[in-house]
Amino acid sequence: MSTVKIEAYATALFEIAQADGTLALVEDELFRVARAFESNEQLRNTLSDSTIPADRRQQVAEQLLGAKASNTTTQLVSLVVGSGQVRDLPAIVDSLVKRASSEKQQEVAEVRSAVALSDDQKTRLAAALTKVTGKPVNLKVVIDPSVLGGLVAVVGDEVIDDTVRTRLDQLKTRI
Amino acid sequence: MIAQIIGLLASEDPNVTHHWLFPETAEIIYGGLSSVIVIGGLIKLAGPMAKKAMNGRTAKIQKQLDDAANALTTSSTEAVGIRAALGDIAGERARMLAEADTQAAALLAEGRTRVAAEIAELEAKAATDLNAARGRSSDELRAEIAMLASIATPIVVQATLNDQTKNELIESFISSVGAGR
Predict the structure, then answer these.
(1) Which of A100, A132, A150 is the last residue of a domain?
(2) A139 in contact with B at a CB cutoff of 8 Å?
(3) Number of helices and strands (H, E) in chain B?
């Protein structure tokens, strides 16, 4: 899909969520759905399989998100699945998150962790990243067991990596 | 003369010999004349041939004598040469033996030097091969250890990373970033 089309979808989703008054929540939920979609090949293949009727794929998406996400988020994902653009869902969501952050004068900070962060940890981490980058950050935490431990934060072009996985890789290279 | 002879001859009786041993005078005369003629003819005709033959034979014998003398001279010369050569053979043999001894000694010395050099070269090569094999084994062992370590480390780390440790790592990250890294 072209960047223009991705931007168009992102704008549409952004405006729907903003109109619904649930932008912060939807943005956060969509971000997590996008990361799950990226990391789960089976889910990706199922939702983008053109041999399965679109309404069936939408049903699958709605069933998966029904209990875990807000109604708006579920409907927006269903909309993207129904339009046959689900393979671009991560790019659309990233664009939406970036736009939402820009609206709030924030920088998106994507943080990967092996375990979930507590609210307190999120608050302190956001404050720490804000201090480092000099800009308020829109913290997005992705649970990624492959990092093993520690955190990696990506803010704009800056990467702060202190994960066990990276240390092991460095150790492996040194060995 | 002739008439006298004829007369004489006519006066003789052909049936009577005048002597029991000697022939008749006429016969003596005829025989004598015939003998003179034959001998004269022989001397005249065969003499040069005989002389020539005798001369040829003399020359041949002389030649044979000369050849014999030459052969004798040649033989004497050769005998002198042989005797001289015989005299030299002993010296030559001694020289050749001495030369052979010298060459044998040189060959022996050269052989010893070459063998020593080859042994030294083989020892050096063996030492190099040994060091290379030792280094290779060491490198292979190191690579094996590294490979095993790289496989084992994540497993061990993952097994030892409990929630508390993970939280400590997160706290450490937040503190570190908050402190301005």
Answers:
(1) A100
(2) no
(3) 4, 0
CA distances from A5 to A28, A58, A93, B121, B128 (A): 22, 21, 13, 77, 69
| Strand (E) or helix (H) holding B28 | helix B25-41
Any CB–CB contact under 8 A between A143 and chain B?
no
Angle between helices A71-82 and A54-65 (to 10 degrees): 160
Looking at residues B90-100, what average pLDDT do you find? 89
Q: Are B177 and A175 inside 8 Å of each other by CB?
A: no
How many structural domains comprise chain A? 2
Tokens of B147: 């490979």
Contact A127, B174 (CB under 8 A): no
Q: What is the pLDDT at residue B181?
A: 53
Beta bridge partner(s), residue A159:
A154
Say what the ipTM of the complex is: 0.77
d(CA A134, CA A155): 11
Verify whether the Cβ–Cβ distance A149 to B149 is below 8 Å. Answer: no
What CATH number has the domain bearing residue A30?
A: 1.10.520.20
| Whether residues A89 and A45 fall in one domain | yes
Same domain, A44 and A114: no
CA dist A162 and A149 (Å) reads 9
Whether chain B has a CB inside 8 Å of the CB on A16: the answer is: no
Q: At a CB cut-off of 8 Å and minimum separation 6, what does B150 contact?
A: A171, A172, A175
Of A129, A149, A160, nearest to B169 by CB-CB distance is A149
Report, as ranges of residue numbers, the positions in chain A whose pLDDT lies below 50.
none
Residues A69 and A25 in one domain: yes
In which domain, by residue range, is A61 found? 3-100
pTM comes to 0.54
